[in-house]
Amino acid sequence: MSSSFASSASPASSASPASSASPATADLTTERLTLRPWSSGEVADVLTGRRSAHWADDFPAEGDGVIAGVIAAQTAEGPADPGAHGHRLIVERASGAVVGSISLLWPPHEGAVEFGYGVVASRRGLGYAPEAARALVAHALALPGVTAVYAQVELANPASVRVLQKAGLRRVSGDGETARYRATAPDQA
Questions:
Q1: Nearest to 41 by CA among 67, 23, 68, 59
Q2: Could you tell me the CA-to-CA distances from 5 to 18, 51, 140, 148 in Å, in that order?
């Protein structure tokens, strides 16, 4: 996973089910963040360049536009829920502002699912990326059929490497330019 789209969360994270949300699409709440599914309107707004009052001034970043395009393509293929399994916006609880996005790149392959994240520049350095990543990784490892979660990172981006380490992922491979970090379910360790 590249540095611009990486992840992390906190042990204090928990799923806060919405009234009709399934466990796969329920909001995830951490001490300072809410990770909530994208709405179809938010996807459209990002893709068309419309601004929303509840976005941080520098949201969306380039990676958020990429994810909005992925979600749009998935929903065009069928009646998929934009938040199914893991495309979520990172919302700062104190302000209500959308400050990034984090995604599980579904479906899992042999029990492993990749994830990516991005936090806007104005909110970097506050620990939001590791906090969000820990929450999404814990959520993913509780989903049926998922035994591992991983991210690819460019080693030239030490900030993303630190995010993955702070999120509890361990380096499992690398080629000198990129590395793969992974977390497994407790019974898979």
A1: 68
A2: 26, 21, 17, 19
Q: Three-class SS of residue 122?
A: helix
Q: Residue 108: left (phi > 0), alpha (psi -120 to 50), or beta? A: beta
pLDDT digits (tens, 9 = 90+) for 28-75: 999 999 999 998 899 999 999 999 999 999 999 999 999 999 888 877
DSSP H or E run through 16? strand 14-16
Query: Tokens for 18?
Result: 């919405």
Residue entry with tokens 């949201």:
59
Residue 65 makes CB contacts below 8 A (sequence gap 6+) with: 46, 47
